[in-house]
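Database export, one record per block. Field names are fixed; values are copied verbatim from the stored entry.
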Amino acid sequence: MDSPYNCILLAGLSLYFEDGHDDLDDFGFDDYGSECDGIRITAFLDAGQDNLTPLGRLEKYAFSENVFNRQIVARGLLDVLREFSDNENDFISVMETVARMSEDGEPTVRAELMEQVPNIAMFLHESRPNFPAAFSRYLVPIVVRYLTDPNNQVRKTSQAALLVLLEQGLISKADMETKVCPVLLDLTEPSSDDDYKIEAMMCKVVTMLSKDTVEHLLLPRFCDLCSDARLFQVRKVCAANFGEFCSIVGQEATEKLLMPKFFDLCSDSLWGIRKACAECFMMVSNSTSPEVRRAKLSPLFISLISDQSRWVRQAAFQSLGRFISTFANPCSTGLHFRGDGALLEVPSVCHAGRTIAHTPPNQDGRATPSPEHVSTADAEEVHSFDDNYTSVPREMRGGFTRTFSNSNASPTTTNNARNTKDTEQTDENFNSFNYWRSPLPDISGELEMLNSEESEEVMEQKETKEEEEEEEPDFHDSKSTQVQVLSAALKAAQLDRHRLGFSNTFRPLHPVSFLNHQTLQSLARLQNVIPQQLLDQYLSMTDPARAQTVDTEIAKHCAFSLPGVALTLGRQNWHCLKDTYETLATDVQWKVRRTLAFSIHELAVILGDQLTAADLVPIFNGFLKDLDEVRIGVLKHLYDFLKLLHADKRREYLYQLQEFMVTDNSRNWRFRYELAEQLILIIELYSHYDVYDYLRQIALTLCSDKVSEVRWISYKLVVEILQKLYACGADDLGLNFINELTVRFCHCPKWVGRQAFAFICQAIVEEDCMPMEQFGQHLLPSLLSLSSDPVANVRVLVAKALRQSVMEKGEPGCAFSDELEETVMALQSDKDRDVRFFASLDPNKSLMDTAPLI
């Protein structure tokens, strides 16, 4: 009695059988003796003393008075189904037994049964052709019934099982609509028992259902739950999952039904609910139109940023950058994300909607398109002129009106006149705004008068200079500073005016002369892509006071979302973010600088080569000299950043690559591993002369690293360098490099170096880095000499290189074929078993990995 009982415990089945030894015999446990680790749960189906059939024994123990017998049957249902899956009648009998067992009065049996339902469903889906019918008939009712089970553990198990079944797509749409959703609706009734409420379950289920099912069955109930005044937990769950509902039901239902509820939740009396709304704000914004996003959601988000609760403000600031990113428009930014996450230029077809149909010129030289030829986008540009005008501060209007309104135009507006030389002369000065507006009067006389009065204005300014310095001491510090700020602010406006073909006749003559300090600050932040309040709040995240009143890591969140904000604003509005980026790049927290270092290559794509060279390269150089935690961010995307620079600027970094070999901690081998990986990519950016002069020495140093992983990747780097040299026709440099490899590795006193030489030779042959004739002349003799190396690990790689690579690539009858065959035959009779294996292995068979040997 003791031995079989101990076996059961050791097998992980803590069962106690009251019937004694006879029951153990019936279960077949005595057949295993002391080897009880291999016990089968379905051993009770084996023939015993009761002369019952396997199905009879299943019935006996499935409905036994001993609860532990029923538990073990429930736990082994999957194995039971495997036993009877070949016979259709037996299979149906087992499924009916399962349905009857689901009504067991013991909660532990029901919980055990429900835990097996997902596994049973997967087995039936893979092995049974009539799976949907059997699953819908027998198992779905069990799952649905257990959602309302009196025992909490059974209910939780049923909810978990339902989520798994939905994730795997095993429940049909009809079952969801007719069986599962009605139960979910009943359990979320306001009058239902609080212990049975499963609002969280319904919110999780909604992400796995179709739009039609959610919109017609669950959306009305969700709207009601958002207004539940009895339990705040219900409203909190709804707020936390609000974004998922919006993304599923789409824009129309979101704006019509969900937006009023979202406004109520954002003004809820409990800060936890408002915080949940701030966290899901981006998903809600993605499900609305640009008009609703700007007119309704933006003021709502501003209210959350200024919330009285610090936790709400903290969540809002963390979501601010993501919310701003929802304003991005690929056709205005000129960039879009590919499926793999790469940021690319938008195809030119996106700009077609903003072009104007070409028509023959009039006698006055202007093209005269009919109204239907004017694109919709340009018409909207004209109508938005008044809106743009009103967005400008009052003191900025007047002579600057046209300049500011032009700066708000989309930078991607294109002119078809660029396509051909003939149309270029016709349309270079045409713009729909200029054409359809009323002609402006000739003011050449007034301009001459202003020029004559210029000297008088200058004298008056000199006389009042001291008085103005007393009133505004921080404004007239430097005339050059004012000009720099103004130039940065107007840079985008000038660029857009040039692209749109606006006439330069109406430039302001002396812009700096009448702008005060507050106006200059506002001018530097001028843009019309997103609401100005959102941008102002985002720029304030670098204020040290925010770290005290909101979040100590608010600067890190600002740095994390800055590329998304820059993409939204576009490179024409980079002046709005430049100072903020420079402030973050010099932040005292290394985590902030590390975040910028990891994303600087993406920001370079957004800004383009000119702004990158002017504004990002200095910061990039600073990161190169920072802590290792910051430098690793630059190093991981070194290739991505360097390829965006001009060749002359890129070449300057050849001298700094050696600095990556020095780290704060010599044990940080992953830093050197990442360097080798990046150098493999960087090779294509430089000429073969630069590769030989600068990258070669770094590669050889890495090949001698103490860590095998670094050496492994460095050998591949050496092969890439050699391939670059021969591909560019620099055979003399390639030969010098081969001689250096031979001296350094083939004749190395350490066996690791000689083993590396064998691996490099094999990689050279497999990658076709050089002609086989030259390989046989310069490398093969040294490789063959290692066939008698005293270290078996060296001979293993020599045998592998010769048998799997050289003999396959070499042509029969070549100069070195005889010596090669003799060496391979000698290795086939080597005293080491692994050497004999690789020397005799058929190259067409699956190859054993020898990486652990290096």
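Remark 1: The radius of gyration is 38 Å.
Remark 2: The CA atoms of residues 674 and 712 lie 12 Å apart.
End of record.
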